[in-house]
Amino acid sequence: MKLYKLNTHTRGCNKSYDADLVLNPQDHPTAKVGDVVEIYSPEDENGTHLLLQITELNEQSKTGRNVISIESGIATAFKMRSYSNVVMQIVNPADVALDSIEITFKDQYMGRSEMWRLKTYLTNTCVYVNKKIDYNDMQIRCQVYEMWSQGERVASGVITDDTKIVFRSSTSMVYLFLQMSSEMWDFDIHGDLYFEKAVNGFLTELFQKWKKLGCNHEVTIVLFSRTFYAAKSLDEFPAHMRDCLQLDYKGRYYEDFYRVAIQNERNDDWCTVLAQLRKLFTSYQETVLRYHERQQMHIPHATNSTATQGNFLEVLNISLNTFEKHYLDRTFDRTGQLSVVITPGVGVFSVDRELTNITKQRIIDNGVGSDLVCVGEQPLHAVPLLKFHNKDTTLTSADDYSLPHWINLSFYSTNKKIAYSSFIPRIKLPILSAVDETDVEESERNFLSCNQSEYIHNSLFDYDAYDEQIFQPLPAQSTCSLQRVVRAKKTSVPSFETYAYRNNDWENLTPTKIPSLRRKMSDPDIHHGTSGMLAALTDATNLSESLASEKNARRTIVSIAPIVRPGRALINPFDPSHVTIKLTSNRRRWTHIFPKGPTGVLIQQHHYQAVPAKSTPAANYSRQLQHSTSSNNNCNANNNNENDYNIAAAGEQYDQVSTHSLMSLSKSIASQQFVMGEEKVDFFKRRHNSLLTATAAAANVPNLTATQAKSYLWGATGEQEWTPAITTGVDWKSLSIPACLPITTDYFPDKRSLHNDYVISDYTLLPDDVNLDYARSRAVYRKPLSTEEVCKEIVSQRLAQGFQLIVVEEKPSATNGCCSSSGPGCALTSNQCSTVLPPSAETRKEYLLSIGRIFHKISLTGSVITVTGYRPRHPYPPINVDYRYRFHAPQHETYEISGVNFTTEKLENFNWNHMDLYICTRGDVDYPLMDSLKYWRFRMYLLPRENMVNKIVSFGSQRCDIFTDAVVDNTREQIDDFVRLIENVSKLKRQIGRKARQHDTPTPRITEKNHNLLNAPQQSINVRSKLEASRISRIFPGTDAAAAAAASNAAAGVIPRDDQDDGFPVDIKFSANITLAEIFEAMKHPITGVGYFAQTQSLPSCTFVSYDALLWLKARLSNGRHPLDILEAMRKEHMICHASGDWSKPIIAGFVFYYVVQQDKNAKDYAPPLNDYSAFVNEWLEIEFQGCSFLWHDEPSPSEVPNFLRDTTAPQSWKTKRVYRQSHLEIDVNQKSDRMEWGHVKHHTVMQPGFAFELVVEWVTSSGPIVSDLISGWMRKAIHCSYQLVSVPADPMAEPFTKKSDPLRGPIFIPLCVTFLPDGAALFNEFPEESRADRMLFLQEAILARFGFLPCVLEETNKDLPKEYQYVHCTGNMFALIRCASNKNQVESPSRQEANVTRCVYGHTNNTNVPKKVGFLWAWNHMIPNKKWKALTINNSENGELFQLKMLKDFREFCSNSDQRLANFWANCQELKRKSKKFEYNNNNNDDSKNI
To answer: N or C, which end of the chain is more exposed by having fewer CB within 10 Å?
Structure first.
């Protein structure tokens, strides 16, 4: 065995030392790039083996003979010393292949199609623990976390086609829900309140783990509970309480409360939050239970529900309503979604069947991780357990249960010691007081009283035989009714059934009257009707079946009469393993995130199992591990911390255990050996040393892979058998670095099922033909996608919408047309199986994908793509649940009414054909993106930078209504900067550079009519120096032409001037009688003309924008002619035309392209227009400028009287037929991606100074990091141009009763005081009544302007509703909304009659007849990154007050007229009006005297 000397090197210090492994090619003549070698120390053959891949073989990088060099970081991690001798040999990659690998990433958005591309990129590469992976094409950075091979955790290995890659994100969106049920105020066995156990125990530990792992999650924490009211009818409730009351199946009234403690926050240290939660806890119960109390008013008695009766499923659905919209408010620094419910209960919930079906389908379809953490004691039956509401009132109805596999359950236990005992109870013991007799109904007490003692304590009755007979598995003909007679032993003691039967009492009994024989178990609700522990099973995985059998599911098994059993077995929560269920794709959706244990069975690493074994040291050790009381291990039984690996001597242990318990051992111990304990035992084991090889596992364990059609009912994997010995710990890994939905799965229905249960449809795509047609008709040429690229993109799109690639385990026989399988979900075959056709050389690719019960097969043969869809023949009926609740968000003052709908989505209705054609045609206008395609979007407002914020933040200005104090009008600068920015975004360059503006010269607007014409209309205060020649980027055609043009100018009476400053190089003044043709010639001048854009594809030569032309004309015209009229006259004379070549488009002032028509068509740089208007606007952003026409034409200055006091009010916003326009967007501007990337940009058609300008980037065929790159580039350019580009949510206000509304967010209502006039006089009394509503709106608008809000123009969606006006703060941090109350808009559509009742319930009512209060809705912009949000802390303020909160506080004070601020504002406005009237009067008098 040849030994090599080991050196180490640092990457990057030397060009030839860039690889992980550097070796001398002369030592290894057979080695080639891509080979995998293993390196280990000869003394320690069973110790650490490091695998590395040869990535380069350089003649230059000679390390010396018999020397190898590895990267120093790897050497340290694998404890390899420099200059030691090591063995190195080339290994077969198949021998060291990984079964699964976990990769973590942070602070970036990685979509599912990017994950697939990354998987492809990593295939056939070698990885080791903590290896950093940089995928430059996609700009993805990630790190290897954990690897599994042959049932063991390993330190290095090779990723093959079959390796399952699990992606885990350390920056996810995490919702933590704390169930504040009555048990939170109970004490656990250690004397702690369950709340303390949840917050001081579980949350504290969780946050510590986050810190240790460097997680940066965006967290929302919500406290929730359900309140029951002791009332028989609605009449007992006063009117103000009735809005959110709901009625349950037992006829009880209840109301659900949600208290949002933390909303979308990121923290480095979460300890402060825990203090906040403790503060909320002290008052929570009293606030909620006494919320409705008013003086002199009787309210029904309120009680807090138990955990079982609580609103558990509603909470999951509320988080799903947010998670479902992940494509709307896309952020680029987080991936993944997790909802965690922390309950003081034991994992048993009483639920509605319909809501369970909705929740299950939504959680599985959306691929959202849902964790349930119980701080109660783990019961002795299988959990999580859902007990369906038993709406059947006949006595013979048994309870129906479901064991949801879509909830990941954890039990948290503290590591406290009890001095007198090491026993930990698995049930919560009942309180010793006698049962309160008043609760037990008369009939219940008397029932069976005569021989109750005899019955209960009678041991002669063979219960075990009875149970066994009831719970035996179904025979084949399961649907027929089976007669069963209770086999009681022949004793004279009457059994429970026979007693009741003889007394003929059955008919009179309703379920509520049945004696419950409750054993005060962990949960009082598990009494299973009269038959002790009987329960009927809902086959939760087959919804249609359960719906069909619901009718007869209720007749159950108590009487001696023949028992009718529905078509499903009964589930016994104490022994669920008797029931196996049919495998479905839903059951296998998440299984690829679980590693395989030594026996080849998927394991959950936080399940531990006590295994009986002889007391050898190894077995003792294993037993010690299982008891969470063991000294080294206490609460760490549940820790799978990154480095807390602990390995028992596996070989010895297996020897002690009989093969019978092998299965349970492998599933529990095997998982636990690797994850538990504090002693840091090195886990880098020699992989072949495990006693259990794959063959042994196969021999002993029933292999439940996809080939088998059955799986266990309980557990997330369906492969682990439940036994009472299993202890569930905490799945810290899932709670700290949640896994993203795997991109692969392994279930595909068999042929029979496909034929019977599915409808098949297919269509073919011929990308080459399609592209040929489009290339001919398209005005702008773009490189089309090849057929291969289209096929890959079609698969990518399905992955992005939640589909998974199906990995077919076994290779099908050749008759299926699949001869060789190449990689996951993809089979490469040749057509040789066809007997008629000659063998063809065409390769064929096939991908199988699935989501829910929908399967797609995408096959590529030659240049034809065939898409085959299988959808269920009997789809689930759509379900819609309307849910009302009260919720209290941060900065709100009360619990407000809210409502939301939970609906299942019809995935089969997704228009895949349209999407595939969109891809084929490369996003052509014929196939636009529609809302139903769920494309990704990123919405932004472009806002001018505002200096006033500094006054508040840096200088601590006490008042915040100072934003209108600025005297200087900087409209010209704003527009110029905007033009520069749009040019930048559009990638346009000018032939003659405009001067860069100097930002430090504010320009007052000069409005006098008779100002000196020598001055520019917007002359700077300090006149800038003459233009230096160097500022002109000289792309002049030639000096002769320039000289000739100058001569012709002189002839035309043009006077050259120097002191002009409109941003153009050299300026001149026209004489009064100049002709249109002469102006046109001067405009075309290469140096002193308007200035054209450099040649760009799809723009004709000599293109300019109308804004430039208007300013150019304004500077030169002297006789009051309107520049716009002159340009329009030129267009009519066919001198200039819209740059698309469309003559019908009039001249519009703004960033709109026009070109000079009269130019030399034979010049070499001549480019004709497209002559296709729609193609042109799809290429270029064109934006009209409004509200700034005084820049190019002198206008009288506007009145200083505020709008709301003018005799005739000015219109509210800019007017245009179209608010938005869409253009094509090239996304991969830096040419980094290996994928064809494009998208669209939707933007306002009008830019008006003082208004927010909206941009939305939309995409489906782009990668998150690439889009992020583009947008951050824009944001930097915006700052450079004195603007800021702020991301905003799709639905800023999140009002309830609207479809896209976020259920846990809502606006804050701030009432406006309208009674501040002396004697309480009404405002605007002096004006006609019909104008008063508008004037009130303008008053509110003026107040918002004082606080720095800018109007946002939105599309009108519904004409029937009251008009709404939305505003955004100039910092982008908050939004405001005014709802107009003008009479003409009072028509209320019944469907959204509540639309007016925002979550900010006006005066606690949604009675629409109550007069609406005047006020504002205020909402926060949660899209602003947390760091930026927190950066606005006011200097020298107490407790570091945030600017945003100070704004809200000050705004509230202003609106409530504190310190007479509102009254003073009103008085000042009235004063302005009086002065202006006086001024007008004087002016008129002066004019009259002149006329005399």
So the answer is: C
Which helix H or strand E contains 1254, and what residues bound it?
A: strand 1253-1259
Distance CA 318, CA 883 (A): 10
**How far apart (Å, rounded) are the C-alpha atoms in residues 381 and 719?**
18
Burial class for 250, CB neighbours closer than 10 Å (0-12, 13-18, 19+): exposed
889-944 confidence digits (pLDDT tens): 888 888 988 888 898 888 888 999 999 999 988 887 788 888 889 999 999 999 99
**pLDDT greater at residue 617 or residue 8:** 8
pLDDT digits (tens, 9 = 90+) for 1114-1172: 888 877 788 899 999 999 998 999 999 989 999 999 999 999 998 888 888 888 888 88
Measured in whole angstroms, the distance separating CA 813 from the mean position of its chain's CA atoms is 42
847 contacts 805 by C-beta, under 8 angstroms = yes
User: Which two tokens mark 824?
Assistant: 């996951």
User: What are 677's two structure tokens?
Assistant: 């304990």
Give the burial string for 935-966 (b: 16+ CB within 10 Å, else e). bbbbbbbbbbbbebbebbbeeebeebbbbeee
The one-letter amino acid at 1057: R
Q: Are 563 and 484 in contact (CB under 8 A)?
A: yes
Separation between Cα atoms, residue 1086 and residue 1070, nearest integer Å: 17
User: How many angstroms separate the most distant Cα atoms in the chain?
Assistant: 132
Give, in degrees to the nearest 5, the angle at Cα 778 between 774 and 784.
55
Instruction: Characterise 625 by phi-psi region: left (phi > 0), alpha (psi -120 to 50), beta (else).
Output: alpha
Please, are residues 1386 and 1433 in contact by the beta-carbon 8 Å criterion? no
pLDDT single digits (tens) 663-689: 333 333 333 333 333 333 344 433 333
Any idea which of 150-154, 180-184, 316-320, 776-780 has the lowest mean pLDDT?
A: 776-780
How many whole angstroms separate alpha carbon 171 and alpha carbon 163? 25
pLDDT tens digit sequence for 1180-1190: 999 999 888 88
Residue 528 has a pLDDT of 35
360-379 as b/e: b if 16+ CB within 10 A: bbbbbbbbbbbbbbbbbbbb
Name the 3-class secondary structure at 1186.
Answer: coil
Residue 1486 half-sphere exposure toward CB, CA atoms < 13 A: 6
Tell the burial category of 1326 from Cβ atoms under 10 Å away from its Cβ (0-12, 13-18, 19+).
Answer: exposed
Quote the CA–CA distance of 1056 and 1033 in Å, as a whole number: 20
1354-1388 in b/e form (b: 16+ CB < 10 A) is eeeeeeebbbbbbbbbbbbbbbbbbbbbeeebeee
Q: Note if the pTM is more than 0.85.
A: no
Q: Dig out the tokens for 475 from the structure.
A: 């025979």
pLDDT score recorded for residue 1213: 64
Task: Confirm if 9 and 72 have CB atoms less than 8 A apart.
Answer: yes
Bridge partners, 1287 (sequence order): 940
Cβ atoms of residues 1316 and 1457 within 8 Å = yes
